[in-house]
Amino acid sequence: MNGFNRIIIVGGGTAGWMAAAALAKTFGQRKQIELIESDQIGTVGVGEATIPAIKHFHLLLELNEAEFLSTVNGTFKLGIEFENWGRLGERYFHPFGPPGADAWAAQFHHYWLKAKTLGDTRGLAEFSVEASLARAGKFGMNGERKPNYAYHFDAGLYAGMLRQYSEKLGVNRIEGKVVDVKLNSESGFIESVVLESGQVMAGDFFIDCSGFRGLLIEQALATGWEDWSHWLRSDSAVAVQSESVAPPIPYTRSTARSAGWQWKIPLQHRVGNGIVFCSHYLEEDQARKLLLDNIDGRPINEPRTIRFRTGRRLKQWNRNCLALGLASGFLEPLESTSIHMIQNSLIRFIKLFPARSIEPAEVDQFNNDVRLEAEYIRDFIIAHYHVNQRTDSPFWIDCREMDIPDTLQHKIELFKSNARVFRDQYELFAEQSWVAVLSGQGIEPAGYHPFVDNLSDHQLTEFLVDVRSSVAHIVASQPNHQQFLAALVKPDS
């Protein structure tokens, strides 16, 4: 037996209950897992959109997809539609699957770029199964080519579902507020947390899911913070739920506004809306009005404001404490990465779970991997802001003119020259994601890969016709999103 058998999770919400579920599923009764949360402390819970990797987490938990979607009022997500990000009135689609078909030396977008020089005006999204399904309002699994997809869901219901799952596996929930943290005077490790009731909870390892406060990782362990707000300038969000006025669409909408952007996330029973903005350029009252003026259905709750700071803890694993979710850092939900980062950190942590002692080399490996992943995601989000052609507001002009990380500058220069995109080991977003955003927001590469010149102009035209025909055939064979969803979550008896 090792010395890490009692795990204390401080905070519930999505992060806390994902941690409880994953650890309980992995270790079973061999670990005593206790989660402390207070009904009096609300969770942020505005993130209701995900990326496809969440399906791997659900496979780990052995969740049934239909039961999951029914419980969380979920819908399917094929990607994100961006409006006004390049220029006012323009829109593009970031799909979860690659367009067309790649060759070994050149990705499909190189063929598309050459076709543009021949006068082909079709957008890249027209060669994407996911984008074409989304714009047709369809979703299905007919045929050999299955779409790559994720979900929209009610974050509160998701946390509740994971709580029930975890408690069935033996996780013990403790109602209460943590008011003090006791550290070992020699090692600096956390020994226990003290609740408002006076109860002392001792543990071997602690997981901080306390949100922006970072009760353990920062207030107790003074881990430190790396600020990214000079690149990602938004510092506030206003969120509101509204009534559904139409069947749910199978994608997220992101509409750029004067000093930020607005999200629209369709669920089965309602729509999640919000505006992310920079308070230096837009006052809270103005943001609130802008949001309420641009939702389709009647609000069903009072809009609430969330303040945040973009950045990350210098260490996500410090001593015998792991920070997850908002306690570990914050990247705005533009590309729906929050839940994924919780998931990936949990998987990495489980793979490096302490055996007999906490080894510095293993902690360093974990922190380095997490840092690299966060920086790659950071760069991808910065790119949305930086690569814009807008001249209508100081916010967008400043974002275009600001200095950016060298890693991102290199990425953009590679694409500007000959449409090259390379994915590094810890990079979440694949090549097609960068192509969708950079080309969608107005970058026109100077050239394309010469490999595509192996096809004559006629052969290239025929190739693209075949790809488009295949996409159209797949789309035509699928039901609409609402029909597929209704059949899945409410099967005939």
Strand and helix map with partners:
Elements: E1 6-10, H1 13-27, E2 32-37, H2 54-61, H3 65-72, E3 75-77, E4 79-83, E5 91-95, H4 108-117, H5 129-135, E6 150-152, H6 155-168, E7 172-175, E8 178-183, E9 190-195, E10 200-202, E11 205-208, H7 215-220, E12 225-227, E13 236-242, E14 252-257, E15 260-266, E16 271-277, H8 284-292, E17 304-307, E18 311-313, E19 317-318, E20 321-323, E21 329-330, H9 338-351, H10 360-386, H11 394-401, H12 406-418, H13 431-440, H14 457-476, H15 481-489
Parallel strand pairs: 1-2, 1-11, 2-7, 4-14, 11-20
Antiparallel strand pairs: 3-6, 4-5, 8-9, 9-10, 12-18, 13-16, 13-17, 14-15, 15-16, 18-21, 19-20
Helix pairs in contact: 1-6, 1-9
How would the global form be characterised? globular
Taking pLDDT < 50 over at least 5 consecutive residues as the criterion, the unreliable ranges are none
Helix content class: 25-40%
N- and C-termini, Cα separation: 49 Å
The oligomeric status of these chains comes to single chain
For the record, the CATH class of the largest domain is Alpha Beta
CATH architecture annotation name of the largest domain? 3-Layer(bba) Sandwich
Q: What's the structural domain tally?
A: 3
Please name the fourth-level CATH homologous superfamily of the largest domain: FAD/NAD(P)-binding domain
According to CATH, the fold-level topology of the largest domain is: FAD/NAD(P)-binding domain
What value does the Rg take, in angstroms? 23 Å
Strands in their spatial order, largest beta sheet = 5-4-14-15-16-13-17
